[in-house]
Amino acid sequence: MTDYPHLLSPLDLGHTTLKNRVVMGSMHTKLEDRAKDLPKLAAYFAERAEGGVGLIVTGGYAPNWNGWLLPFGSMMTTEGHAKKHRIVTDAVHKAGDGQAKILLQVLHAGRYGYHPFSVGASTKKSPITPFKPTRLTSKGVDRTASDFAHAAALAKKAGYDGVEIMGSEGYFINQMVTARTNDRTDAWGGTAAKRMRFPVEVVKRTRELVGDDFIIQYRISLLDLVDNAQSWDETVELALKLQAEGVDILNTGIGWHEARIPTIVTSVPRAAFAWTTAKLRTAMHANGAPIPVVASNRINRPEVAEQILAAGEADMVSMARPLLADAEWVKKAAEDRADEIITCIACNQACLDHTFKNKRATCMLNPRSAYETELILLPTKRAKKIAVVGAGPAGLAAAVELAGRGHTVELFEADAEIGGQFKLAAKIPGKEEFIHTIRYYERMLDVRGVKVRLGSRASVDDLVDFDEIVVATGVVPRIPSLPGVDHPKVVTYAQAINGAPIGERVAVMGAGGIGFDVSEFLLHDVDESIEHWMERWGVTDPEVERGGLATKVKAPPRRIVHLLQRKSSELGKGLGKTSGWVHRQTLKDSNVHMLKGVTYDRIDDAGLHITLGQGDTAERRVLDVDTVILCTGQESVRDLVEPLEALGKPVHVIGGADVAAELDAKRAIKQATELAARI
Q1: Of the chain's two ends, which shows fewer C-beta atoms within 10 Å, N or C?
Q2: What confidence tens digit (pLDDT) does each residue in 475-492 have?
Q3: Which of 134, 139, 227 is nearest to 178 (CA)?
Q4: Annotated catalytic residue: which of 112, 160, 171, 218?
């Protein structure tokens, strides 16, 4: 008897049946953009099909060149394109039990196109792209609707089981249906009914071309989270019209890309938007259109998905990054191995941050993702006895993957618990998910038979009998050379997070990722409710306010915090591409005093003495604070390396012990996994 009966039950669509309720949501990996990468894309999707996913959605493919996201990007416009995609669809259909289905997402970027040929409902420029779109003529809009349908017909020829028509996230269809971006007065604008004519025509023409035995999934925006958006009644009206024209499944999207409210980062509570899906599902049933509705955003664990389905809030659940993190997510849930799932922690560091930097997306916790044909972990032909010193992210990844290949592995950790810097990260408000990474590694160390020696600081004598040694001893906080740095009011970031007494007035020295994390730790409590999170960010019921956009309710911060940076650049400039703005906005909303171009002079009973600026305009200040927290970098712990190398044994230095660079777990885990593949 499975613990997830709703999640794993089949879904009958009439003309076909999905084997379970799990949708692998669309995510652009960069493998879509070049035909030469399609074999890699095929392997990527096939591994997820093998892992039990019922329905897979590809990254977005433009229906014409004006709809490109990037110049010469992914598109489905010719018979040649369709023929090349057979390698993808065949791989998915042959994988596992052969029941997995795959949809091609048809996406027109509209004014989000990052190229000078972009077009839009109007000439209104997007705030997140540099190019002003050309306004489509009435005939141009009509042709674009037909281009969507043509792309779907080609997808059918390519062997896809259906298409997902991208109508959310602020892309072209979203731009057509809202007054925010559609100021037209022709047949495609001027009233709500005319604005929604475009997606209705897209679906109608698509169904006419593909027939009745082809899945049409439409991704509809339930919360635009921008001004002048659709009303809730208009959203429901659109959904009903789409269903009437032949949509089989309504997938849900939350927020435009330009919205200033986070929707997928780790600080967003789990299943924070499932209530919107429930709202749409209820409306569809009340209007006699009980079409399957898919919940999305921040659903990363089987128990969360099961709860949504069991409560009747949705008929399916969509997960993109969780299935990037673990291709066997569904299989592990079905086999009562949910504790072995690599849980997506929504860090965005290797997936979305890569996408928005035009790099191939992968996963911080699973660097094999989208590299299935390149980073291969085969059983070893010669088992070795290997010591791994240090149980932070690098050491844990190395130990688990080396043991998985068949080596005999012993893990030494000086602390009483595993986790290293991830233990600190898990204590930051909004980063509680990081604890699941530690739990995963703890479980896999046991499953793969790694001998773990906690509270054991390895010496050279402890390591002489091993064939090879992996040094992953991590980092320690760097203590700057500064008068008064040994004052009682001074603590390191590690001491602060681990419970050192902190006063009401605090100066945080260093505004890198750790400085921002420590500032949030000082200001807010952990595990806030969905309701509190919505109030803090200004999210409400779309029946109350168009697009679900409300006024923020700012909670008073727990402390007065000064965040200081030596550089003269804006604070937080080096944070993650897709999550950094969230951290900056959180601190701004909490009235953190952010100062740049700071010179640290000394620390004494009066506080932290600083100088702002240089030369004749320099200003000296004394920050009257109770506590000074050092976030001034890290230093590698490498004391074992030289004596071990003197033994003449192979020594591999990875993670922070190799390079001390903030909390760079992405590099550390990738380095560890690549090492495991080589030994």
Answers
A1: N
A2: 999 999 999 999 999 999
A3: 227
A4: 171
